[in-house]
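User: Quick one: structure for sequence A, then sequence B.

Assistant: Sequence A:
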Amino acid sequence: MRNGCRNGRSAAQGCRQLSLSRSPRAPAPQRATAGAEEGGLKSWPGSVSTASCSSRDPLATRTGEAKAANQQSTQDCASARPEGSPAEVNPEELWSLWKQRQSERLGGAGPRALFLDYDGTLREFEARPEQAVPTPEITALLTALNARKDLAPHIVSGRDSGFLESHLGSLDRFTLVAEHGYKLRRPGAGWEHWRAGCGDEEQQRWKAILRPTMLQAAGEVTGSHVEEKASALVWHYREAAAEAGGHGAEALTKRLEQLRAREGLGDVRISCGQKIVEVSYRGVDKGSLVRGLCEEQVRAGCPFEAVLAVGDDKTDEFMFASAPPGSMTIKVGAGDSRAKFRVSSPTELRDFLRCIAAPCDDERAAAGAESGTA
């Protein structure tokens, strides 16, 4: 099911500024305008720029591909290649930039798309992933976004489909994306694999080969554990001592790379993120997913009017690199990134999203008129 087209002006026109409470900020922003950003969303190029690391079709003929992947196996932890320092902005500045995009009407007749990571972006990290469930504040925010018919909201997460269904399944206008794009649930539909031919059974061979090495690392580093998803194995070390966890991650990555090369597992990606080492199917990444969903809207004749992509980790760099020209991309937290802007914390991001979720002036006026004639 495609997101429907809209007629007329964006509902974001005239949205009033909310009163935001924020913690003290770091230094003044490097830039607070989007003057350097060019291009709109009408003409989706259909391909990722050469800077993207996941532009190839994962289902294409594999001749020579495994060899090439193994030759550069030591590069996977930096495969998203973040570069540059995003402009530091606060929620009020982001809201002004977002309203500016609506006044410029960069895109087409479709809704405004939100592509939101979950852990470290919407929700602060916890010692163990299962503890990081949506808070009442986050639930209220997402419910408000869900109520806006001019938005096409997406949660694009590394979480498995069970977690997303359990905690976010009631959001009937959200597209839920699990395991970085391995599965998704569109509004009004059930869960499906994003890529044809990459079902759960295809993941079992490489998992059987690499799982023992990851379990061994969990036994060697106190406070670490292995999480198994349909398309990935993840070694978590957030609860481990800092030095032991760091050394363990480095040693595990090296052992996995050697094993991958020896076994010819060219379809497997090894990546390092926020206190994790993740092994996953190479054909799955957030960038391919975001690019594909935007292309669907173009083919349906109603490209997204605007695109917002937000994340905090290396897997989100694929999403930033693949977002259409003119998109607003936001990095949450410290570190180099391809994103244009940065906020310091999930709290600041939620402040900004509350502005987007707020009813606009036209809607409030219409609601007042209806109540006055009732």
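Sequence B:
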Amino acid sequence: METFREDDELFKEDQETKGNKTSKIWKFLNSKDMQISRNRWRIGTLFIITTVLCVLLIIYYRTSSSKKIAKTQEDACVSSPFLNGGTCITAGCSYYCRCPESYSGYQCEGHSILASTDLPGNTHAQIATIVHNAPEDNLLIGSCSRIDIAAVYQSSPIILTSMTSFSTEKTPCSLDPCLHNGTCTVVKSSFKCACVDGYNGSKCEETPCSLDPCVHNGTCTVLGNSFNCACVDGYNGTKCEVQTSCPLGWTMHEHNCYYFSSRENNWNDAKRACKRQNSMLAEATSLSKIRFLKTNAKQYLKEKDTAFWLGGSDLAYEGVWVWTTSGRKVSFTDWHTRTIHEPNNWNGKEHCLELNNFLDYEWNDDNCLKRNKYICEKQYV
């Protein structure tokens, strides 16, 4: 209630005498002041009435909403919507079905192998929704607001792949049981795998190498829908089934045969001598071959012997060493550099490659007209 002071200039002081009593009173200065005072009282009264009405409306709507939600929860399971012994459990404005073992589906209507979810009790479960008087795209349930699926079970959230279908159903093919690009097909409560060519087994687990097709200690490698066998020395063929051998007087190494001559020839004659035996001057194209040739040269060279010719030369371009029969560039080398830095093209006439006895059986460039022993190379017979 408003109070007024004298300095408000709306009232004036006056005295009123009734009988023998005199009292002090306030009077409006004029009618305009009286109207202002009345308006103030009206505004204050209207504010109080409005506030009371708002409070009453809030209480009413909250009570009404709670009743509707409670009824929605009651209605969710009243019709017993689930089959095969499924249990209907309300969850806020939704419900979910706890299906017995080996059953799944919207109403537990089908057989399936289900992965466990994070519902309490580690049960097989599926979430369904009840939509009342609302378009599906709004995802409204009864009087509830937009669904927050993560809050359906705050203590155990469920990750759903579709807001409308809530598809958590698993099938026998859900875990991709078919290996190696096999195609899975559901067959009743089980599955069947259609395997690509070369693979077998109920889950296509058998590869082209599963049956160990490579014999004689060959190593099998899956190659697309087939296989490849890496054979040990002395065997070849698609399954290493063919036992190979080198001609008499030849030594086997990595699918090749090598001949260490006892005669001496210049480099060109040595090439021709190897060709007559359907072979070529040896080409040391790997570190393994370099070690093999060096080890065996020590056995065949006598103290007076100088070297063995190999098939390398820089006759075409000085300093560019190639294996002359295959035309491949020399990539692995074993040049002697400890006492003499080879190759050095001494006197400009050293263009052929030799394995030198006096240089630790390492490589040296020498005059192609010099007479040396030689090493021939060819594949298995």
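The CA atoms of residues 185 and 192 lie 5 Å apart. Residues 31-78 form the longest helix (48 residues).

User: Thanks, that's what I needed.
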